[in-house]
Amino acid sequence: MNRLGETIRPVVADLIARAGATMILRRVEVPSYDPATGDVAETTVDIALKGVIEEVETGHPDGVVRRGDRVITVAAQDLQIDPSPGDDLIVAGAVHRIVSVTATYAGDRPAVFRLHIRR
Hints:
Layout: H1 3-19, E1 21-28, E2 32-34, E3 39-41, E4 44-55, E5 70-75, E6 88-91, E7 94-106, E8 109-118
C-alpha cells in the first residue's frame, strides 16, 4: 500500500465510526447436510459495523433503483469480510438485502464500500 492509502483508510474509518449509524452485516453460509439426521443446517455470520445512510433518487436512468432503496457507506478497514450482493444488512431492526457493492480504493486496498440496499 502506498503512503497516501495508509493515511486515508484510518481517517475514513474514524469519520464513519463517529458519524455513522450502527448496523449489522449478516452473511448466510452455505447450508450443510447431516446425512445421519437428515437435517440441513444453515449458519449465519453477523458483523457489527457503522455506516452512513443515504437516500437514493428513484429517477435513476437505468431503472435499477426502486423507491425505498438506500446506499450505505461503510469503512473497509475494520471489516473481517467484504460485503457482497445477497448479504443482508440490518439497519434499525429492518432487514435489507444488498443489491450491489462498489469499492473506493486508497492505494491498492478498498477504503470504503458503498452498499446499494433494498427491503
